[in-house]
Amino acid sequence: MCRRDAEHVRCLHQMVPGVVHMHLETLDAVARESRRLPPVQKMVPGVVHMHLETLDAVARESRRLPPVQKVTPYLTTH
Question: 22, 35, 66, 70: most buried by Cβ count inside 10 Å?
Fold first, then answer.
């Protein structure tokens, strides 16, 4: 490892405490704000089933469509 690389690694090691502190402050802010949110409601199994049926129907219908054609670029370099 050349001297320049060693200096770079040393600088990175010196940055770690500051970066960790910054991330901890951000996580604290996120935790505070998350306490303000209403509780997450559980999905009803029937709703999940309805969404799965819809996805299946979309997949079936998409098979009936013609294949997508590749678009060729308007400008070509020669």
Answer: 22
